[in-house]
Amino acid sequence: MEERHGIFPDKVYLNGQVITLSDSQPQAEAVATLGDKIVAVGPTAAIKELIGPKTKDEDLNGKTMIPGLNEPHNHFGMYGPAAMYSVNLQSPPLGSIGNMRDLISALRRKAEENSSGGWVTGRGYDDTLIAEKRHPTRHDLDKASSEQPIFISHVSGHFSVANTKAFEMAGVGKDSAQPIGGVIRKDPKTKEPDGVLEEMPAQMLVARLLPVLTMDQRLEGLSLAAEHYLREGVTSCSDAGVNFPGVGSSREIVAYQEALKRGILPLRITMMVGVHFLLGAEGKNPSFLTGFGNDRLKIGPAKIIVDGSIQGYTGWLSRPYHVPFQGDRDYRGYPVTPPENLNTLVMAAHQAGFQIAAHGNGDAAIDAILNAYRLAQEKYPRAEARHRIEHCQTAREDQLDRMAELGVSPSFFVSHTFYWGDRHKNIFLGPERAKRISPLKSALKRGIKFSLHSDCPVTPVSPLFCVFAAVNRLTRGGEVLGPEFRLSPEEALRAVTADAAWQTFDEKVKGTIEVGKLADFTILAENPLTVSPERIKDIKVKEVIIGGLSVFNAT
Ligand SMILES: [Zn+2]
Question: Under 8 Å CB-to-CB from 157, ≥6 apart: which residues?
């Protein structure tokens, strides 16, 4: 019997509603696994016949099993440290900051806690959700502490504010030149910095002084992120910002490796790595290419940031913002990476063989990205490059045509319809452009494959929430934003499983429940294809299985 054991499954799951997302057998009741793979899918009676002497069985008892959920763009590595060390400055419903006074007192409390003079950091404030409807200034932050340096980040991640102490330490003042791709906002009268730093080139002027995380802190952070992501049913995720030119970033890949080795990283991670780091010295010496690694941890696309965020007025649009920014009726945002630099970087990364993921929110940024991809493909044609556009919020119909033509795949930040939809309509984009943010149905009609993401910690990690947003397009105010762009639940589910796997070249190993694929499953209390669409976000995750092992159990 011992020799024969290998031919029996280790485990069978019976009596469930199995949504396979495979065309040949879309639905089943039961699944058998052996090692980390799926060995059979079918009706309960047929799977029962495969049971051997050592096979364990689990009665799904009518629960729904779907392919393991895939979070295709988020900041897994940053999530833990942010949660552990930074003051939460989010406004309701995600936090409790209602006005500037609340924000200052939250920071003051933290400053008093660590009165040793160290840095006080905060995250997630939203200028459009606090009563004053503006960013804090350095003088606001000085009220929390003038002795300790303070550095806080906007919910989008595209702005930071520092206090006077931090500006002094960084040597940034009246005479500091504006960096390329960023802005040190200055007081129009005194010309002194007002505290707000737009985009990474400006943010880094101060952020480079923040203490570098130790390996232990990073590992603790990864372990915390894993715990929280598993609760949301996530089995695979792409960290969209590894080794950016950023604070202490060069240790991030090593931290992931170490976490994997120590067994504290149950999820499968794809690392989108900063393009400059990947291209290596003089842009010619990549150490590894997209795909290097294994099914647990691998190098994904080269990441490039092309513009900022629309809700921060730094998204780069082809037409001006709806409510003019600081009274400027022509203001359209700006590129963080100017088109000439973008073309050079894309050409180099494409020629070297990388998949590329370019962050583009505004349609002018999307134009620039598509131009760069076209130029690269014209010079070095490569089938199946699967270059991506991250967020892709304001894609126009003509741009979707070009994406289909070039084989470009977007990852849409669809939760914006809920979290910022009302403000996109009334403030940033106006009704016409707001209703078509994340035009999922238009992309689908053209046969474009895409994924849906949370950009966590910008919004809470939850692939089921993305499905809810894609299916309903409900704003926080209760309006349906662009009903014609809604997806069916199945179409949306595909974008957080099968098509998210396709984007990382993993369609042969995961994303559907089929024989030969990895045994990654998310087990849900209810069936997202049959519950009422508004309730999809409330479906409870009961169990998560990765590579045949149960790694989260809600009971
Ligand atoms: Zn991101």
Answer: 75, 309, 458
Find the range with the poorest average confidence among 53-57, 61-65, 245-249, 294-298.
245-249
Please name the helix (run of DSSP H) or strand (run of DSSP E) that holds residue 193, with its range, or none: strand 193-198
Let me know the angle formed at the C-alpha of 166 by 160 and 169, rounded to the nearest 5 degrees. Answer: 135
Question: How far apart are the C-alpha atoms of 265 and 267, rounded to whole Å?
Answer: 6
What single-letter DSSP state applies at residue 353?
T
Distance CA 413, CA 452 (A): 6
Residues 113-147 as b or e (16 or more Cβ within 10 Å = b): eeeeeebbbbbbbbbbbbeeeebbbbebbbbbbee
Is the pTM here over 0.85, yes or no?
A: yes
Cα 120 to ligand 1 centre (Å)? 23
Confidence of residue 247 (pLDDT cuts 50, 70, 90): low
The two structure tokens encoding residue 172: 């940034």
- Matching residue, tokens 């959920």: 69
Helix/strand/coil (H/E/C) assignment for every residue in 157-190 = CCEEEECHHHHHHHCCCCCCCCCCCCEEEECCCC
Q: What is the mean pLDDT of residues 470-493?
A: 97
**What type of residue sits at position 515?**
V
Residue 397 CA, ligand 1 centroid: distance in Å: 24
Cα–Cα dist 492/60, whole Å: 24
- Average pLDDT of the segment spanning 68-94: 93
215 CA from centroid of ligand 1 (Å): 23
Whether the per-residue pLDDT at 6 is higher than 90: the answer is no
H helix and E strand count, the chain? 19, 24
Write out 290-320 in H/E/C secondary structure: CCCECCCEEEEEEEEECCCCHHHCCCCCCCC
Q: How far is the CA of 53 from the centre of ligand 1 (A)?
A: 48
Largest CA distance in the chain: 86
d(CA 243, CA 128): 30
Judge whether 237 and 510 are in contact, CB under 8 Å: no
User: How far away, in angstroms, is 455 Cα from ligand 1 center?
Assistant: 5
Q: What is the DSSP letter of 43?
A: -
Quote the ligand 1 centre to 256 CA distance (angstroms).
18
